[in-house]
Amino acid sequence: MDRKDLRTPQGEIARILVEFLEVAITSVIFLKGIYPNGAFERRRYMNVVVHKARHPQLNEYIHTAVVALLPFINKGLVDRVAVIFFDDGDVPIERFVFKLNVNQSYNSKVEGANLEFSLRSFLIKLPVSEPLTKVLPRNCRWEIMAYFRSLPEASTSKDAEMWIPTDTKQWQQPPTIIPIKSMSSEPLGLQLYLEHPSLSEPKNEEK
Ligand SMILES: *[C@@H]1O[C@H](CO)[C@@H](O)[C@H](O)[C@H]1NC(C)=O
User: Fold this and answer.
1) Residue 59: what pLDDT?
2) Which residues form the HORMA domain (predicted)?
3) Is there an atom of ligand 1 within 6 Å of 106 CB?
């Protein structure tokens, strides 16, 4: 992607968002306790204590995934970024959803510091939301998924290549939504919520 693309207000927002998402997604993984606590180290980010993975592969997976979204967030194509936990039958158990809304017509200067200040509150709220989340079974796996508003053109860039279309199992009923935090300031709106299978969701029969 052209560096000059990032000199627009949308580019500036996208850059801040991507950095934030990397930290926030790592916080979600830490929160769910699927790796030993020793796999993370404490860091400060936006003056909040956060966790960073010690494991290079884990770091790299999260980093590469969100950085690859930068051009698409910049163009307003990304609707949601989710961290999804699956049981060993590959059925989703819980989704942490970041819903993005970047005003594409906004053309004033972006106050990066204000934006970061608002995003910071998500990082503060996340750890205290742990009781709202599901206890995960032992053999679960997780992944990061992005939901696009529309499909990017085929040849956009190398970044697009790592985002492969997917066809994961879905819930049959609309999920239960548990809001965690939201902001709706100009030019960025962001919501973080949990999705759980609805109580009427047919259970996966083991037999
Ligand atoms: C987006 O930004 C433009 C320009 O600042 C503003 O006029 C418009 O109301 C904003 N749109 C929304 C949905 O807030």
Assistant:
1) 93
2) 11-194
3) yes
